[in-house]
């Protein structure tokens, strides 16, 4: 930039005021503790905002800049940006001491404020279960660039942002709980679905937001199940094939509908994970199961369990005991089998007979027999407890004097 032009711009800046210069505008709420993320072209040390402003004017690719307004240093940070704030403020982040400014010719394309959008989630801790493979759930392969899949007994959880990233009413975006800020999106060139962050290299945020935004179609094909239709590519739905997730054009066939139908199920909550249960009167023995899945207390056994709370019936104050080595397998007593306890498979957290759920749900009765030890009472059969006889576990009535029914978590 020539010195004559630079002098002209400086004079113009001081004569008309900061907020009205033709070359630069600042939307409301952009003057304190905010910066544009994911878009920095270059970073410079400057002495004042004017220097940062002039550097942006010198670079044709610069549409906005972040300026460190508050600092104890002699120089301030000036970040030149290749983009402007999007319609929802998704690419705006809080940063103490920073302010954000736009070129006037780019300003009209953005929102009129830097207020950071509050995210609203319709679900916060869920799994997405396949209809035709009910033990498979939405997931992603961390060894393959987070390629989206349905995986057997996978425990990754998600939350649904509503409205979706584009801000359009009636839409959602699917965000990972394990990797906040990462959403399922489809690739327009391959239709493959993968998990991407909101800072995609060489990928415009606007396109990313559209490709990560879906419309939920409830009960379209099956009661209790839904489809995820691409919000900006109608008639294309998330579907699985060979366990990989992609978007596919709707086909009026049972195969397509089953592959594109999913159920929202609550993720399990645990009282304890990876614990053992020790017998009070045989303290070298632990609650376990043999090769036939019959439940015993076994000497020195190292099998561990997750304790669901609430239990499978969903009643507050109850628990269910799930094997860590065999997900979806629970301790269950059967009145029809002399009340013996076995480890049995439950098809999924959203399925299974009501009898299964009731017979695999217990109430912890702490200190009922010995201080520091508990008994497990059947949730639907008052005064019936799990105990061992000949090391075999079964349900027995009235054990208030029996050490065979006392256990503790270790």
Automatic annotation (TrEMBL):
Residues 1-19 form the signal peptide. Keywords: Signal. InterPro entries: AbfB_ABD (IPR007934), AbfB_ABD_sf (IPR036195), Pan_app (IPR003609). Residues 30-105 form the Apple domain. It holds the Pfam family AbfB. SUPFAM superfamilies: AbfB domain, Hairpin loop containing domain-like. The keyword Ribosomal protein does not apply. GO terms for biological process: L-arabinose metabolic process. GO terms for molecular function: alpha-L-arabinofuranosidase activity. This is Uncharacterized protein LOC106180613 isoform X2. It comes from Lingula anatina. The gene is LOC106180613.
């Amino acid at each position: 930039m020539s010195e004559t032009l630079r002098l002209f711009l400086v004079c113009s800046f001081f004569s008309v005021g900061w907020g009205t210069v033709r070359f630069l505008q600042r939307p409301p709420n952009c003057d304190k503790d905010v910066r544009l993320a994911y878009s920095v072209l270059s970073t410079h040390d400057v002495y004042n905002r004017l220097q940062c402003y002039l550097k942006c004017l010198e670079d044709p690719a610069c549409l906005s800049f972040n300026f460190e307004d508050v600092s104890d240093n002699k120089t301030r940070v000036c970040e030149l940006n290749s983009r402007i704030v999007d319609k929802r403020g998704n690419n705006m982040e809080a940063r103490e001491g920073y302010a954000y400014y736009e070129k006037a010719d780019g300003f009209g394309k953005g929102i009129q404020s830097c207020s950071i959008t509050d995210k609203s989630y319709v679900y916060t801790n869920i799994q997405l279960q396949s209809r035709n493979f009910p033990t498979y759930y939405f997931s992603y392969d961390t060894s393959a660039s987070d390629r989206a899949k349905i995986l057997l007994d996978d425990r990754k959880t998600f939350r649904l942002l509503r409205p979706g990233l584009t801000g359009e009413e009636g839409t959602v975006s699917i965000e990972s709980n394990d990797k906040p800020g990462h959403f399922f999106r489809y690739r327009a060139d391959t239709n493959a679905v993968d998990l991407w962050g909101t800072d995609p290299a060489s990928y415009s945020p606007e396109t990313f937001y559209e490709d990560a935004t879906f419309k939920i179609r409830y009960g379209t094909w099956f009661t209790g199940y839904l489809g995820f239709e691409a919000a900006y590519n109608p008639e294309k739905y998330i579907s699985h094939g060979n366990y990989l997730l992609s978007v596919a054009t709707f086909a009026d066939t049972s195969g397509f509908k089953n592959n594109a139908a999913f159920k929202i199920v609550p993720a399990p909550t645990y009282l304890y994970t990876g614990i053992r249960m020790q017998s009070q009167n045989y303290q070298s023995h632990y609650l376990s199961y043999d090769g036939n899945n019959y439940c015993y207390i076994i000497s020195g056994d190292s099998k561990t369990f997750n304790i669901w709370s609430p239990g499978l019936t969903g009643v507050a104050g109850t628990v269910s005991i799930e094997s860590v080595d065999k997900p979806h397998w629970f301790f269950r007593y059967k009145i029809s089998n002399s009340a013996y306890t076995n480890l049995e498979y439950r098809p999924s957290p959203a399925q299974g007979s009501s009898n299964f759920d009731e017979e695999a749900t217990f109430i912890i009765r702490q200190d009922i027999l010995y201080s520091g030890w508990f008994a497990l009472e059947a949730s639907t059969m008052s005064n019936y407890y799990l105990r061992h006889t000949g090391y075999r576990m079964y349900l027995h009535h009235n054990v208030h004097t029996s050490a065979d029914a006392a256990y503790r978590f270790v």
